[in-house]
Amino acid sequence: EKPSIRAILTDKSVWGLALARTITDPVWYFYLFWFPKYLGDARGLPLMAIAATAWLVYLAADIGSVGGGLLSGRFVRRGAAPIASRLKVMAMGACLAPLGALIALQPSLPLTYALAALVALSHMMFLGNLTTLAVDRFPRARVGTIFGLIAAGSGIGGILSTPLVGAFAATRDYGTVFLVMAALHPIGWLIVWLTARKPVAVRQ
C-alpha cells in the first residue's frame, strides 16, 4: 500500500528524530570543521602539528560508528527489542558526549585530544543508532521518505549552527561553544525517547 504523505508528516516521531539530528549534528560539524581551528587559535598549535595529531579524533569517530552498531546488534541478539537496543546505545553516547565540556578548561593537550575523541566516538554511536531507528520503526515503503526528512534535520542544524560558532570563534570564545555542545546530546536523546520509543503499527 502506497504510504500516505499526510500520515508521514503528521507523525510526531518523524519530527522528533529530525529535531534530534538538528540539535546533535552541529556537535559533529564543530569537531569536524572547527576543532582544528580551535587548536590553532586557542592552543597555539602550528598547522603541521594539528595535521599530525588531529586525525585521532576522527579515527575515534570511525570506531564509534562501527562499534555503536555492533553493540546495539549484540543487545538485539540477546533478546532485547531493536528500538530499546538503539535507545540504550544512544543513551550511552548522550552520557559520554557532555564530557567534552571539560575542554573549556583547557586541560593538557593529550587530555584535550582524548576528550574530543570521546565526543566524536559518542556522537557516532548516537547517530548510527538514531538512523537505524527509522528502519526499526517504519514499514519499508516509508523508510526512504522518512529518512530523507530526518536527514534534512542534519542540514538545518548545520545551517543554523555554523554562523553562531563562527561568531564565537571570531572572538576566540571557544569555551562557551564547548559548554553548549555538551548539552545537546542529552536533549536530543530525550526528544527521541519522548517521540520514538514505540514502534509504529501501520497496515502495509
Percent of residues in helices: over 70%
Main β-sheet description: none
CA(first)-CA(last) distance: 5 Å
Overall morphology: globular
The total count of strands amounts to 0
Rg, Cα atoms, Å: 18 Å
Extract low-pLDDT stretches.
none
* Beta-strand proportion: under 5%
Q: What is the count of helical runs?
A: 8
What's the helix-strand series? HHHHHHHH
Structural class by SSE content: mainly alpha
Mean pLDDT: 92
Describe the structure.
There is one protein chain. This protein is mostly helical. The protein contains 8 helices and no strands. It has helices at 5-9, 12-41, 47-53, 55-77, 82-96, 109-137, 140-170, 174-196. Helix 2 (12-41) packs antiparallel against helix 6 (109-137) and helix 2 runs parallel beside helix 7 (140-170). The radius of gyration is 18 Å and the shape is globular. It starts with a helix and ends in an 8-residue tail after the last helix. 38% of the residues are buried.
Based on the model shown, name its key terms:
single chain, 204 residues, mainly alpha
Quickly describe the structure.
This protein has 204 residues and is an all-alpha fold.
